[in-house]
Design a protein that fits this description.
Oligomer: single chain
Largest sheet: 5 strands, parallel
CATH architecture: 3-Layer(aba) Sandwich
Number of helices: 10
Strand content: 5-15%
Distance between the termini: 17 Å
Radius of gyration: 18 Å
Length: 211
């Protein structure tokens, strides 16, 4: 991808991957190496805090019943709505994605390190729907076999295999993610192997910055 935002000083690597692929382990390892990490999942929670523009827009589109007595978004109720209706999911994305991208850019503009990791779990899905991040410098995909994803997901979240499979089916396929990758880390071994793989990429990225 070609960077189209000259106001971002850092070399930006978009990190993506399917659920339970190991994105957090990869981003944590980059962080340990001194790389700035910005996570759009965190930003997605911030843009729907009580009284935020995002939460007001959700209430206007989906109803005030999604706002709890404490002013917080009822995430479980919203998840049930969008999981059952693709058009509702697309509506939610049309509300949140612009807010998330704008906040991502704002935070990246404050980065004072040569490299920055921007974690975008649904990057492949966003590209399919036209919600592009064309200004990132590289796309790094954490790849893992679907069977391993299901095994990790059932153990981590205590969900059934059918539900884990349904969650995977609602995400982009491995083929779709790999199609947008500049770099790939296959996370099917232990944590030490993963750290070594991240270290190799870290040095490669620093070389790109210097050149």
């Amino acid at each position: 991808m070609n960077k189209r935002n000259p106001n971002i000083p850092a070399f930006v690597i978009a990190l993506t991957g399917g659920i339970a692929s190991g994105k957090t382990a990869v981003s944590d390892t980059f962080s340990d190496l001194g790389v700035a990490v910005i996570d759009t999942d965190v930003i997605a929670r911030e843009v729907v805090l009580p009284d935020s523009a995002g939460l007001v827009a959700i209430a206007d589109s989906f109803g005030n019943q999604l706002i709890q007595d404490d002013g917080q978004l009822n995430r479980r109720a919203l998840r049930d709505i969008i999981f059952a209706d693709k058009s509702k999911r697309e509506l939610l994305e049309s509300i949140l994605h612009p807010l998330i991208r704008a906040e991502s850019i704002r935070q990246l503009q404050q980065v004072d390190t040569p490299l920055a990791i921007l974690v975008i779990p649904l990057l492949a899905e966003g590209l399919d729907s036209g919600n592009t991040y064309q200004w990132v410098d590289r796309v790094l995909v954490v790849d893992v076999d679907e069977a391993i994803q299901i095994q990790r997901l059932t153990a981590r979240d205590q969900v059934s295999e059918p539900l884990a499979q349904a969650i995977l089916d609602n995400q982009a396929s491995r083929k779709q993610r790999l199609a947008i990758a500049d770099d790939v880390i296959v996370n099917d071994r232990d944590l030490e192997y993963l750290r070594v793989a991240v270290g190799v990429l870290y040095n490669e990225y620093l070389g790109m910055v210097r050149s």
